[in-house]
Automatic annotation (TrEMBL):
Organism: Scyliorhinus torazame (Cloudy catshark)
Any GO MF annotation of the entry: calcium channel regulator activity
Family under the similarity heading: Belongs to the small GTPase superfamily. RGK family.
Shown stretch of the complete protein: 82 to 274 of 322
Listed GO CC annotations: plasma membrane
Name this polypeptide is given: GTP-binding protein
Length: 193
């Protein structure tokens, strides 16, 4: 049934083929300090708020969304290896879905998010990859530099979903990962018909 793609003999085949088991690689992209690891740790169920690094960068968890199980392999590997170009290329190629994070308190990180979206589009041209744009640190109201409207408008331009989260308050984090599962399923379903 499949030809020409990578090996598709296990659930760990690349997501452009039908990975029956529903294992999806989700990468977090974004500037350093925006909260990628904090969001990942919440996904992984790691509670220790003070330990900067748990050592691991890839977490697997099965979520039940709309009555159906999907397993996400969440990869917090962006910008952790001294930004070597091959790591960046690898990250851009390996994901089945992307979470692009900026901090609402850091306009430069919002601009970086746009650049990342463009880079992703360039590298994965033919594919309709699920992406969610995330404005994190929504609890820091008084140091907000990027409005909700700007975030939303950016997502419209980039044809992706948008959500504001607070890793500190665990606000909307569950919704974020459920959202990525739904986006993956939507694209998958439309491909199959
Ligand atoms: P990364 O470099 O993108 O992985 O960012 P981290 O997850 O390491 O977070 C950088 C800093 O921002 C840490 O001190 C976090 O505690 C803090 N941080 C992350 N998310 C939030 C948030 O939603 N609200 C607040 N107030 N601080 C956050
Ligand atoms: Mg980190």
């Amino acid at each position: 049934r499949e030809r020409g793609s990578w090996s598709s003999d296990s659930a760990e085949s690349d997501g452009s083929s039908d990975s029956d088991g529903g294992l999806f690689r989700v990468l977090l992209l974004g500037d350093s300090g925006v909260g990628k690891s904090s969001l990942t740790n919440i996904f992984a169920g790691i509670q220790d708020a003070h330990g900067e690094h748990s050592g691991e960068e890839i977490y697997e968890r099965t979520l039940t969304v709309d009555g159906e199980d999907s397993t996400l392999l969440v990869m917090d590997t962006w910008g952790t290896e001294g930004d070597e170009p091959w790591v960046q290329d690898y990250c851009m190629q390996v994901g089945n879905a992307y979470i692009i994070v900026y901090s609402i308190t850091d306009r430069a990180s919002f601009e970086s998010a746009s650049e990342l979206r463009i880079q992703l589009r360039r590298m994965r041209q033919a594919e309709n990859i699920p992406i969610i744009l995330v404005g994190n640190k929504s609890d820091l109201v008084r140091s907000r530099e990027v409005s909700v409207e700007e975030g939303r408008a950016c997502a419209v331009v980039f044809d992706c979903k948008f959500i504001e989260t607070s890793a500190a308050l665990h606000h909307n984090v569950k919704e974020l990962f459920e959202g990525i599962v739904r986006q993956i399923r939507l694209r998958k379903d439309s491909k199959e018909t």
